[in-house]
Design goal:
This protein is an alpha/beta fold. The protein has a single domain (about 5-135), classed as 3-Layer(aba) Sandwich (Rossmann fold), CATH 3.40.50. Helix content is about 45%, strand content about 10%. Strand 5 and strand 6 (about 130-135) form a beta hairpin. Helix 1 (about 10-15) runs parallel beside helix 3 and helix 5 (about 80-90) packs across helix 6 (about 100-110).
């Protein structure tokens, strides 16, 4: 069982809520093996709501309900870190980095947390801190 504080990306949230998602079973297993709350940011929740709306009209409500029930907490105020986020977006300009990815990298730095639940293979390349690797669940 993983301790609370694992960083959470968009893909696992969508996979958990969508039985049709190719990663649904994996998402269920990893969420069951981790102690909530996961840490994420508003950008991750916005992406998940947008993607879930395509799957089900009630999808965005379900994403928010998971937070209300304590599965995740918004642990990163992007507004307070815009200069650092800009630097990360510049550093990884050659990769398909999203604002949510940059926020999660910065969240790792702020909370000193290397564990992340993601399906995004770029997190094997991204580094937090000076040169710390992510531990992808």
């Amino acid at each position: 069982m993983n301790a609370p504080g694992v960083l959470l990306d968009t893909g696992p949230l969508v996979a958990l809520l969508s039985e049709a998602d190719d990663h649904h079973d994996r998402a269920r297993r990893v969420f069951a093996d981790c102690t909530p709350p996961f840490r994420c940011c508003e950008a991750v929740i916005a992406e998940a709501c947008f993607l879930m709306r395509r799957v089900d009209r009630a999808g965005p409500r379900e994403v928010v309900a998971l937070g209300r029930r304590g599965l995740y907490r918004l642990a990163f105020p992007a507004e307070s870190h815009l200069a650092s986020l800009e630097q990360l977006l510049k550093k990884y300009v050659g990769l398909p980095i999203s604002f949510a990815d940059a926020c999660l990298i910065r969240c790792a730095e702020v909370h000193e947390e290397a564990r992340i639940f993601t399906f995004d293979s770029d997190f094997a390349i991204y580094r937090w801190g000076r040169n710390k690797r992510f531990h992808v669940l």
